[in-house]
Write a structure and sequence with these properties.
Helices cover about 25% and strands about 30% of the residues. By secondary structure, the chain is an alpha/beta fold.
Length: about 250
């Protein structure tokens, strides 16, 4: 299994990276985890969009889903698409949300994506065994575990502290965990993790490695990493265009 960070900026695109988008490949199957604003341009530097086999959207905030719209434009008008419908897995209502993002009149996008509504559960996407749990976030959001070839990756999506996410990540090889909040007083509950909390989740789950991601451009990413390492030394900072073998 190979992970390529297409975008990792939290909450909005930043000067060094688009918003959230992660390419996971195994046995020549290409799965996108999220497709946040700015990510479709960066995707084209690492993969021909015609090679995308499926898309998984953790939730429907713009920094995780908005670049579905330029994907639609590319599919319809570039002349480079083979015309096949791309499976897209997302929370209930994604078809309407994404159609409206592309066109205020909300015309259907079913010529581009075959949208499947998800909840907490287990199923298969290509070679991946997929397991999802609801996270601690204001909108419906699902962390996802991918198992394939004896290896495992867990992506938190957006979440505050969550025992369910810890359990999902139990024993995983890699935890790709958001850390959007600096460790300061007065943080809202059920929204995002701090760097320290991301490290605590990794330690509690007994994962092999932590990749800290989704750090906003206005938050010190090195400080987030240092806070994670203080409780879980096997932590790294996910970086735009970084490639990680799992």
């Amino acid at each position: 299994m190979r992970l390529t960070v297409v975008g990792c900026s939290g909450s909005a695109p930043g000067p060094a990276s688009p918003a959230s988008c992660y390419l996971v490949e195994h046995e020549e199957f290409a799965l996108l985890l999220d497709l946040g604003n700015g990510a479709f341009g960066a995707l084209q530097a690492v993969l021909d969009p015609a090679m995308v086999d499926a898309v998984y959207l953790s939730h429907l905030h713009a920094d995780h889903c908005l670049d579905v719209a330029p994907f639609v434009v590319w599919h319809r008008y570039s002349g480079r698409s083979d015309g096949r419908t791309v499976p897209l897995y997302a929370p209930v209502g994604a078809d309407r949300r994404l159609a409206t993002a592309y066109d205020p009149d909300g015309g259907p996008i079913d010529d581009v994506f075959g949208v499947t509504a998800i909840g907490a559960g287990s199923w298969a996407i290509g070679p991946f065994e997929v397991t999802t749990v609801r996270t601690a976030h204001p909108v419906e959001c699902y962390a996802v575990r991918l198992d394939a070839g004896g290896r495992s990756l867990v992506y938190t999506g957006d979440t505050g502290p969550s025992a369910d996410v810890v359990e999902l990540a139990r024993g995983a090889d890699v935890l790709l965990a958001e850390a959007a909040h600096p460790d300061v007083p007065g943080l809202p509950d059920g929204l995002h993790l701090t760097g320290r909390q991301a490290g605590e989740h990794a330690a509690a789950a007994g994962v092999g490695r932590l990749l800290v991601t989704h750090v906003p451009a206005w938050v010190d990413a090195d400080a987030q990493l240092a806070a994670a390492r203080a409780v879980f030394p096997a932590s790294e900072l996910a970086r735009h265009a970084g490639v990680y073998d799992i």
